[in-house]
Amino acid sequence: MAYLFGWLLTFFFLISLLAIISYQLMCFADLEFDYINPYDSAARINMVAMPEFVIQAVFCLVCLTTGPSFMCFLSLPYLYYNFRLYRRRRHLVDVTEIYNQLNWEKKQRLVKLGYLIILLVIFIVWLLWTVGNDDY
Amino acid sequence: MGTENPGRPNFPMRPSSTPFASALPTMTPFSSRGPMVGSEASNIRPIPPGAPPTMTPFSSAGSSPPTRFSDPSVPSPPITSVPSAGGPFQQYPTPPFPSTVQTTPTRAPPVGQPPFQPPANQISAPPVSFRPQSQVPPVPMVSAPQTVNFPPSSLNVPQPPSESLFSGPRPNFQPTLPPPDLSYSTTKSTFQPPFPAYPSKQPAVSQVPSPFPAQQGSFMPPPPASSSPFSSQQGSYVPPPPIAAPLGYQSRDQMQHPGSAPPIGGIQTLTEDFSSLSLASMPGSIEPGLDYRTLPRPLDGDVEPSSFVEMYPMNCDPRYLRLTTSAIPNSQSLVSRWHLPLGAVVCPLAEAPEGEEVPVINFASTGIIRCRRCRTYVNPYVTFTDAGRKWRCNICSLLNDVPGEYFANLDATGRRIDLDQRPELIKGSVEFVAPTEYMVRPPMPPLYFFLIDVSISAVRSGMIEVVAQTVRSCLDELPGFPRTQIGFITFDSTIHFYNMKSSLMQPQMMVVSDLDDIFVPLPDDLLVNLSESRNVVETFLDSLPSMFQDNVNVESAFGPALKAAFMVMSQLGGKLLIFQNTLPSLGVGRLKLRGDDLRVYGTDKEHILRLPEDPFYKQMAADLTKYQIGVNVYAFSDKYTDIASLGTLAKYTGGQVYYYPSFQSGIHGEKLRHELARDLTRETAWEAVMRIRCGKGIRFTSYHGNFMLRSTDLLALPAVDCDKAYAMQLSLEETLLTTQTVYFQVALLYTASCGERRIRVHTAAAAIVTDLGEMYRQADTGAIVSLFCRLAIEKTLTNKLDDARNSLQVRIVKALREYRNLYAVQHRLGARMIYPESLKFLCLYGLALSKSVPLKGGYADAQLDERCAAGFTMMALPVKKLLKLLYPSLIRIDESLLKPSAQADDFKNIMKRLPLVAESLDSRGLYIYDDGFRFIIWFGRMLSPDIAGNLLGPDFAAELSRVTLHQHDNEMSRRLMGMLKKLRESDPSYYQLSYLVRQGEQPREGLLLLVNLLEDQMGGTSGYVDWIMQIHRQVQQNA
């Protein structure tokens, strides 16, 4: 039961991370097409930046303790990257330079998104596989 | 000398339409060319073997221009002539051509053109007009078929009219030629000896051409005359010469080919397309064969390329908009071969000289005519069709309806009949009065808010007093009377607000000491209407210095004070002037000493020192811009004040940073007074936004300067004035552009001080080309350097200084290499360095840039604050001012001071700029070094004590660091002051303070002047000659 709970938890964490990243990407796209101004855009993106980092860290922790520990290792690079951004204080977008950084920030988030999707796929495959094994 | 080509730009632009010109293409080039000098051994051959006897004088004359006139048959005229035609020689009067290392004539006749750039000739027909050479109809018209299949080698071009042909007639038109310079004859004599010594590697360059080019620099009109006469005038002047010129050509041509083929064509083509520097070492010398005297220098200051305006006369003036090249590439692949920046520098409010003001147009009820789709404003390039009922947008080519009130019939040629009453249809720069649709809120009054540091160091330096006096004296001239608003806050460890309600007798001071939770003690009356509260404001300014004279507070609550000012101003927006003397130490936004740790320098963390330390400043800057507040920062401290952080406020609000290190009112007071007064009184545009539109297929992608982007292509400029320029780079969106012309339109929407909302529109057109050579030809060094400068400074914010300098150098090298590759196949370039005439100063400015304050050296070469301040300043400078700063003028003035009648009219003559090398300094002279920001007056060691005494009065023997220059009661001193005044008036945007220095006064001389002689080698940096060698070497590597 506890395992199942752990799985569910990790699953929701993954989904929420995906949601946050997509939200940020949407904000960037809106900004690019001039639907919102840089102030609002930066505020929205920055609002969820810290939650993303925290959720990601907790996700790693949960993976390590309850769930598939290899998932934890898989997401360690991500964690380290976030940590580095935070250390350099580059985790928040800079409203004054937002247009100059737009491309880089978008690319960074697209990579994150891809990474998370791969994680999700691996996770689901692994989940199905273990469930199948259990039945057997 | 081939590198200097003063006369060229002036060369008659319009190709002559007479058939003759076309018949004699080879002649024009000669005249357009700089002196053909013997320099390049490889190119010049002393005497064509087959030359007729008349040739001899020419060849013996070597490269001297006058040869043409010293034709034996007419011996006298040359000598008696007027010395007006200094030409290229003027600039280095002493030994005009000191060594045998003359570079080849670098420009060539049109003959070579066809093979290299057929497309250029076809496509850019209009542009050609300013390039005389390309204009000249290609040789094939005249000459034998050979020229059509022009082989790369220099052999087969028809010889220019051979001597034998016109030696007869020539005397006849001799009189029509302008008398050559006397000096020529002297130079000639200096040349004679070296000439015969040239090894003649290159077969036969006849000497004929050389005379023509040399003259070129000086006598404009005559050369063409001298060329056309061969055919056209011969008929009239001379009893018909035996052979008609064209005929002679061919026969000559054929005759010569088999024999000692006149290779001249090859050289001419070569010389036509580019300029070159010879770098081959001369036999018998170890020194590189490069004479520093022959290198190109922008001694005439910035010359705006005339091509742009000439080609499209309805374009706005280049002072408003300059493209890095006025030939826009038509394909991505062409862009990728253009390694220089592709973009524009815009100075939307540049000061126009008297009589050229931008016309203001009020459409009133019609509304402003704009394209429905792309929102382009109506401009001279739109076309009216359908009997005047429709107009076609030049940018997106959409057909728009002409509103009823704007309708006018078209005449037979399709032009509107009311054209002359519509300045917007004939002028590239106009200003529209904007109706209410262009306002988010009613236009706000001009607002000046002062945030003044009153801590102990500010009091001691005397800054407060100067500021108070200056502001008081400017009250009458503040723009926008009677609506102007004004307000003050002072701060040390607390924040002082001043109630200036008009009913009060004197201002009330309110002190807020709660720095954590800033509040504004009064809802209004902190910001008052100047005309209503004039008395209170004056009382306040009078008492301000004395109010704080005993203040001993050393703290600075800058952050909270800034927030308070923001709260007061946020309703109206306006201009915030910050006077900062102490490192912010209290409350939000406090900064700490940075840059003391020497270990950081030269590492990857170095650039962090040049970035704002606390995000508070960026956030604050963003908020200020949002509320239409522009910030100007005046920083005065003698210690570190973290300009990097403070300057951010100015950077993102479209303001500027004034930095007066170790301010002392006695010394720097005058400078502050002038610059503050200028800041307060110059015409300012409020609540502005700027956008630049361009034709389909291209897009502006990055913007550089002091502003904040409000959307991808909209620059927010809370307060903008004539001293600010913005640079932008463009890129192609489509792989191939099919149109012929591309249009740019800069639109600045702003509130004028009078309260009117206006739109200033500058429109320009540029040709689209398919040929890289054409892009190079139409390049604008000023704009390129301006963009390079901004890119490099931006790079220092994220990289090491070294990287920024290197990337600059790499781009220059790449550009020159690409250029070399264009010609390497057809020409034997050998050890020469070639570059387009239009970019002849690029290398020098590149060097100057890497020696400029924001980029130079390492830790020890410039203080961190100074570096950052210079960076912020240079990011906003207009092109002319930037070039002046990069290559300052050095002027010798002692002679003109002694001359009895130095009057205003010969001011220009006196101001002859010298190359920035130590050799220019003569210890018997007195020099002014002027970089647009300060004057350094250098007293030679052996300067006559008379002059020094007259200028400095009793303290001429004192140490000059303690002496300030002021007027003494004698003619010489008055004249010097007059001179300085004139120089200052020529550029009022900054005040140039005079620093006096005596030769040998160390270390002051080194710091002030010697380090700025940028052509000299100096502690690890390369000199101009080395730099050229270095670039040349890199260009040749994997070329």
UniProtKB/TrEMBL annotation, chain A:
Membrane topology: Multi-pass membrane protein
Key word Methyltransferase present: no
Ranges that cross the membrane: 53-81, 113-132
Chief location bin: membrane
Localization: Membrane
Record-stated family: Belongs to the cornichon family.
A GO BP annotation: vesicle-mediated transport
GO cellular component terms, semicolon-separated: membrane
Pfam families xref list: Cornichon
Entries under InterPro entries matching the protein: Cornichon
Organism superkingdom: Eukaryota
Protein name per its UniProtKB record: Protein cornichon homolog 4-like
Signal peptide location: none
UniProtKB/TrEMBL annotation, chain B:
Domain spans labelled Sec23/Sec24 trunk: 443-679
Annotated SUPFAM superfamilies: beta-sandwich domain of Sec23/24 (SSF81995), C-terminal, gelsolin-like domain of Sec23/24 (SSF82754), Helical domain of Sec23/24 (SSF81811), vWA-like (SSF53300), Zn-finger domain of Sec23/24 (SSF82919)
Domain of life: Eukaryota
Location of the Sec23/Sec24 beta-sandwich domain: 685-768
Keyword Transferase appears in the UniProt entry: no
GO biological process: COPII-coated vesicle cargo loading; intracellular protein transport
Residue ranges with Polar residues bias: 58-67, 147-165, 183-192, 203-216
Record's signal peptide: none
Zinc finger Sec23/Sec24-type domain boundaries: 368-406
Domain Sec23/Sec24 helical: 780-883
Subcellular compartments: Cytoplasm; Endoplasmic reticulum membrane; Golgi apparatus membrane
Family annotation (InterPro entries): ADF-H/Gelsolin-like_dom_sf, Beta-sandwich_Sec23_24, Gelsolin-like_dom, Gelsolin-like_dom_sf, Sec23/24_helical_dom, Sec23/24_helical_dom_sf, Sec23/24_trunk_dom, SEC23_SEC24_subfamily
Keywords from the UniProt entry: Cytoplasm, Endoplasmic reticulum, ER-Golgi transport, Golgi apparatus, Membrane, Protein transport, Transport
GO cellular component: COPII vesicle coat; endoplasmic reticulum exit site; endoplasmic reticulum membrane; Golgi membrane
Compositionally skewed regions (Pro residues) per UniProt: 46-55, 107-118
Domain Gelsolin-like: 912-978
Chief localization: cytoplasm
Low complexity: bias regions: 227-236
Region (Disordered): 1-260
MF (Gene Ontology): SNARE binding; zinc ion binding
Family of the protein in this entry: Belongs to the SEC23/SEC24 family. SEC24 subfamily.
Protein name: Protein transport protein Sec24-like At3g07100
Gene: LOC111275612
